[in-house]
Amino acid sequence: RFDFPAGGFCNDIALDDISGDVYATDTTLGAIRRVRWEGDQLEEWLVDEAFMPEPGAFGPNGIVLSGGDLYMVRFDTAELFRITMNAELAAEAVHNISWDNPPKAPDGLTALEDGRIAVVDNFGGRVLAARIEGDVAITSVLRDALDTPATAALHDGHLWVTESQVDHLLGFDPAPASEPFFVREVLLDCAQ
Predict the structure, then answer these.
(1) Which of 103, 126, 160, 170 has a CA between 20 and 30 Å from the CA of residue 109?
(2) What residues contact 2, with CB distance under 8 A and at least 6 apart?
Protein backbone atom coordinates (compact mmCIF):
# COMPACT_ATOMS: atom_id res chain seq x y z
CA ARG A 1 0.00 0.00 0.00
CA PHE A 2 1.31 3.42 -0.98
CA ASP A 3 -0.23 6.78 -0.12
CA PHE A 4 -0.50 9.50 -2.75
CA PRO A 5 0.69 13.02 -1.85
CA ALA A 6 -1.80 15.36 -0.18
CA GLY A 7 -4.43 16.39 -2.69
CA GLY A 8 -3.63 13.47 -5.01
CA PHE A 9 -6.15 10.89 -6.21
CA CYS A 10 -5.23 7.44 -7.53
CA ASN A 11 -7.59 6.83 -10.43
CA ASP A 12 -6.29 3.89 -12.47
CA ILE A 13 -3.32 1.53 -12.56
CA ALA A 14 -1.36 -0.43 -15.15
CA LEU A 15 0.96 -3.37 -14.55
CA ASP A 16 4.08 -3.86 -16.66
CA ASP A 17 4.07 -7.63 -17.25
CA ILE A 18 7.79 -7.60 -18.10
CA SER A 19 9.33 -5.41 -15.36
CA GLY A 20 6.63 -5.93 -12.74
CA ASP A 21 6.40 -2.17 -12.18
CA VAL A 22 3.03 -0.58 -11.45
CA TYR A 23 2.03 2.79 -12.94
CA ALA A 24 -0.85 4.88 -11.55
CA THR A 25 -2.60 8.04 -12.70
CA ASP A 26 -2.97 10.90 -10.26
CA THR A 27 -6.12 12.52 -11.57
CA THR A 28 -6.01 15.71 -9.48
CA LEU A 29 -2.27 16.51 -9.43
CA GLY A 30 -1.65 15.77 -13.13
CA ALA A 31 0.95 13.05 -12.69
CA ILE A 32 1.79 9.44 -13.39
CA ARG A 33 3.28 7.66 -10.39
CA ARG A 34 5.18 4.37 -10.27
CA VAL A 35 6.11 1.64 -7.83
CA ARG A 36 9.11 -0.42 -8.97
CA TRP A 37 8.89 -4.21 -8.74
CA GLU A 38 11.41 -4.35 -5.90
CA GLY A 39 10.71 -0.80 -4.70
CA ASP A 40 9.43 0.33 -1.36
CA GLN A 41 8.12 3.76 -2.33
CA LEU A 42 5.78 5.54 -4.71
CA GLU A 43 7.77 7.56 -7.26
CA GLU A 44 6.69 10.64 -9.16
CA TRP A 45 7.39 9.06 -12.57
CA LEU A 46 6.09 11.80 -14.86
CA VAL A 47 4.57 15.22 -14.31
CA ASP A 48 3.65 17.24 -17.38
CA GLU A 49 1.79 20.53 -17.67
CA ALA A 50 -0.40 18.88 -20.34
CA PHE A 51 -1.76 16.50 -17.68
CA MET A 52 -2.84 19.13 -15.13
CA PRO A 53 -6.62 19.56 -14.81
CA GLU A 54 -8.47 22.68 -13.73
CA PRO A 55 -9.24 22.70 -9.97
CA GLY A 56 -12.04 20.27 -9.20
CA ALA A 57 -11.78 18.47 -12.57
CA PHE A 58 -10.68 14.87 -13.23
CA GLY A 59 -7.55 14.86 -15.37
CA PRO A 60 -5.37 11.76 -15.91
CA ASN A 61 -7.53 8.67 -15.82
CA GLY A 62 -7.15 5.43 -17.80
CA ILE A 63 -3.63 4.05 -18.27
CA VAL A 64 -2.28 1.02 -20.12
CA LEU A 65 0.96 -0.38 -21.52
CA SER A 66 0.76 -1.43 -25.16
CA GLY A 67 3.47 -2.11 -27.72
CA GLY A 68 6.22 -0.94 -25.36
CA ASP A 69 4.62 2.48 -24.78
CA LEU A 70 2.45 3.81 -21.98
CA TYR A 71 -0.92 5.34 -22.95
CA MET A 72 -2.97 7.65 -20.72
CA VAL A 73 -6.22 9.57 -21.24
CA ARG A 74 -7.51 12.71 -19.58
CA PHE A 75 -11.13 12.42 -18.50
CA ASP A 76 -11.83 16.16 -18.64
CA THR A 77 -10.39 16.97 -22.07
CA ALA A 78 -10.52 13.53 -23.77
CA GLU A 79 -6.84 13.90 -24.70
CA LEU A 80 -4.90 10.71 -25.38
CA PHE A 81 -1.16 10.61 -24.72
CA ARG A 82 1.51 8.09 -25.71
CA ILE A 83 4.56 8.15 -23.44
CA THR A 84 7.64 6.51 -24.89
CA MET A 85 10.20 5.06 -22.49
CA ASN A 86 13.94 4.52 -22.68
CA ALA A 87 15.80 1.30 -21.81
CA GLU A 88 15.83 2.28 -18.09
CA LEU A 89 12.00 2.66 -18.20
CA ALA A 90 12.16 6.42 -17.66
CA ALA A 91 9.72 8.61 -19.59
CA GLU A 92 11.40 9.76 -22.80
CA ALA A 93 8.77 11.74 -24.71
CA VAL A 94 5.07 12.63 -24.48
CA HIS A 95 3.05 12.53 -27.70
CA ASN A 96 -0.49 13.90 -28.01
CA ILE A 97 -2.58 11.46 -30.07
CA SER A 98 -5.56 12.91 -31.94
CA TRP A 99 -8.84 11.02 -32.38
CA ASP A 100 -10.77 10.42 -35.58
CA ASN A 101 -13.92 10.14 -33.40
CA PRO A 102 -13.17 11.32 -29.85
CA PRO A 103 -14.82 9.83 -26.78
CA LYS A 104 -16.90 12.16 -24.64
CA ALA A 105 -15.27 11.23 -21.31
CA PRO A 106 -12.59 8.53 -21.63
CA ASP A 107 -12.12 6.40 -18.54
CA GLY A 108 -10.49 2.96 -18.46
CA LEU A 109 -8.03 1.70 -21.09
CA THR A 110 -7.32 -1.97 -21.85
CA ALA A 111 -4.77 -3.44 -24.27
CA LEU A 112 -6.36 -5.88 -26.72
CA GLU A 113 -4.54 -8.90 -28.12
CA ASP A 114 -4.50 -7.53 -31.68
CA GLY A 115 -2.68 -4.32 -30.72
CA ARG A 116 -5.75 -2.11 -30.39
CA ILE A 117 -6.67 -0.36 -27.16
CA ALA A 118 -10.18 -0.56 -25.72
CA VAL A 119 -11.34 2.87 -24.54
CA VAL A 120 -14.24 3.02 -22.10
CA ASP A 121 -16.22 6.20 -22.86
CA ASN A 122 -17.86 6.92 -19.52
CA PHE A 123 -20.44 9.64 -20.24
CA GLY A 124 -20.59 8.55 -23.89
CA GLY A 125 -21.95 5.17 -22.71
CA ARG A 126 -19.82 3.15 -25.11
CA VAL A 127 -16.65 1.13 -25.57
CA LEU A 128 -14.35 2.00 -28.46
CA ALA A 129 -11.47 0.09 -30.00
CA ALA A 130 -8.61 2.42 -30.98
CA ARG A 131 -5.89 1.46 -33.42
CA ILE A 132 -2.98 3.88 -33.07
CA GLU A 133 -1.58 4.85 -36.47
CA GLY A 134 1.24 7.35 -36.01
CA ASP A 135 -0.26 10.15 -33.93
CA VAL A 136 -3.91 9.33 -34.71
CA ALA A 137 -6.30 6.96 -32.93
CA ILE A 138 -8.63 5.32 -35.47
CA THR A 139 -11.71 4.16 -33.57
CA SER A 140 -14.59 1.78 -33.99
CA VAL A 141 -17.50 1.22 -31.60
CA LEU A 142 -17.48 -2.17 -29.90
CA ARG A 143 -20.60 -1.55 -27.83
CA ASP A 144 -22.85 1.36 -26.91
CA ALA A 145 -25.94 2.09 -24.78
CA LEU A 146 -24.06 1.31 -21.54
CA ASP A 147 -24.84 3.06 -18.25
CA THR A 148 -21.72 5.17 -17.60
CA PRO A 149 -19.15 2.41 -18.08
CA ALA A 150 -15.94 2.91 -16.10
CA THR A 151 -13.36 0.24 -16.78
CA ALA A 152 -12.75 -3.02 -18.57
CA ALA A 153 -10.76 -6.23 -18.27
CA LEU A 154 -9.82 -8.70 -20.99
CA HIS A 155 -10.37 -12.41 -20.33
CA ASP A 156 -10.44 -15.32 -22.76
CA GLY A 157 -11.02 -13.15 -25.83
CA HIS A 158 -13.85 -11.17 -24.28
CA LEU A 159 -13.88 -7.72 -22.80
CA TRP A 160 -15.77 -7.29 -19.54
CA VAL A 161 -16.95 -3.76 -18.80
CA THR A 162 -18.36 -2.34 -15.55
CA GLU A 163 -21.41 -0.08 -15.63
CA SER A 164 -20.58 2.34 -12.82
CA GLN A 165 -23.67 4.57 -12.87
CA VAL A 166 -21.30 7.23 -11.48
CA ASP A 167 -23.43 9.93 -13.12
CA HIS A 168 -25.97 9.34 -10.33
CA LEU A 169 -23.32 9.59 -7.61
CA LEU A 170 -21.93 12.85 -9.04
CA GLY A 171 -25.40 14.38 -9.50
CA PHE A 172 -25.37 14.58 -13.31
CA ASP A 173 -28.41 12.28 -13.28
CA PRO A 174 -30.62 13.14 -10.27
CA ALA A 175 -32.41 9.78 -10.35
CA PRO A 176 -31.09 7.12 -7.97
CA ALA A 177 -28.81 4.43 -9.38
CA SER A 178 -30.66 1.27 -10.37
CA GLU A 179 -29.69 -2.04 -8.83
CA PRO A 180 -28.17 -4.41 -9.47
CA PHE A 181 -25.00 -2.99 -11.02
CA PHE A 182 -23.80 -4.90 -14.08
CA VAL A 183 -20.59 -6.12 -15.63
CA ARG A 184 -21.28 -6.47 -19.37
CA GLU A 185 -19.53 -8.74 -21.84
CA VAL A 186 -18.22 -7.12 -25.02
CA LEU A 187 -17.41 -9.46 -27.89
CA LEU A 188 -14.29 -8.56 -29.85
CA ASP A 189 -13.95 -8.78 -33.60
CA CYS A 190 -10.17 -9.01 -33.85
CA ALA A 191 -10.32 -8.98 -37.67
CA GLN A 192 -10.89 -5.19 -37.70
Answers:
(1) 170
(2) 35, 41, 42
Residues whose CB falls within 8 Å of the CB of residue 135, separated by 6 or more in sequence, listed in order: 82, 95, 96, 97, 98
For residues 126 and 13, give the distance between their C-alpha atoms in angstroms, rounded to a whole number.
Answer: 21
Mark 84-104 as b/e (b = at least 16 C-beta within 10 Å): ebeeebebeebeebebeebbe
